[in-house]
Amino acid sequence: MLRIALVLLTTLAVFVRNEDDLPGHMQPIGSHRPPEESIEVRTSVPDPLEFYDKYMAKNTPVLFKGALAGTPAVTLWNDDEYLSKTFGDLKVGFEIGKKEDRLGNDSSSTFGEFLKRYKTEDIYVVDDMPGDMQQEWMVPRCLLCGGFIEYLYYCFMWFSSGGTKSVLHTDSYENLHCLVSGLKEFVLIPPEFSDVIGPEHAELGYYYIDVEKVNMTSHPGMMKVPWYYVRVEPGDCFYLPYNWIHHVSSHGRNLGVNIWWSWFEFVRDKCPEDMTEVPDFLPLAQFQLRPEKQIVSVFVEVAREDGYVYAEDLAEVLSVYNYSVLHQVLESLDPGCDGKLLVSKLTSDEIPLENYINLKEFIDTLDASDKDDEAVEILQETEDCSDGPIEEWPDDEGGVDEEFDWSNKREKFSSGHHVDIGEDDDGIQVPSEEDIAKFHRQYSGKKTSNYRAQ
Q: Which of 191, 211, 258, 409 makes an SS bond possible with 243, Cβ 3.0 to 4.6 Å?
């Protein structure tokens, strides 16, 4: 018995020692290794075409220092008394618990009531920006022409006394996050490492990782995942591209705003010939947000290399709906096209806005009736397509490119662009050093200006 006990104690000691040797084990996310070289930081905001070509089309994050410095929100919203006097009667939604868990612990009150409580209670605002506040929120010049405005669908406000911690997650849309007050810190991981970190929670959309105590025995691949540190200060705007993996923590009285939009094809004709004519800012209130267009981001993500979105692919991703319902969803956007929608019609703004509105009404009806088939009748009132589906993608000269490759059209993450996972000397599944070096070169700030998709 004594020998058995000694063996068990020795085994336990080895196990504990090995756990202690795991980099970042049971420590905050990012403790496993130093951050990579910083993402690009700019002191000027580019015009819309440069922003699209250099950052959005290449899925490359960038920080614009002082982008909104001096604007009404940055100068006035630092004062709780001003906010209460000016917007105190507006209704806002807030979450209970500053460590995000996505379990639906939310409530609402007037903004004035929230301002009386937020400094002493474990609550924070996360809600659409009320319309009256949109008069004082400025949209920076990088989004003011070329199609961005037509695809803006949410403007979200985040407000707390600091200390909030998000889950580790991805977003299926483009995001410009601007800060009014406080400090925000981002842990940023390239999307290609999703499988190394995974899996994600299927319903709540985040990774099974405790961001305050990362268990490296459960997530051994995390030990070699490269990451970037981004510090966002008042007046800064941070472009966080589609599908980048991130965790956000806030410090101090903290008020930030996200503008979200879906992927689209930039249209030069929607900009002045001289880009210097694009103003530095315009009030958000001048534009109509289109929440119904968020579906574009979902469709772009599941498009096949032939450029089409298929109902059966949507049924696999959106498992709450069956094939026949999702076939009708595609038909509602492009009637008569038989459940096979050319995604370029979405990204080049060929789909009438009315069709998106019809789709939103249809989805709302499904939710209200437990997805009753009778809701499909809403979709049968639209007319058929006049020309039928386009069989090929047009090239830049207006002809047809028969060898079009969807995966190269959008220089972004897709399900076919994952890193290879191998084993290190200890048998732990990790990304290779070659993959880590590749993504370091691709996304580091000093390399961004020279990077071109191969």
A: 191
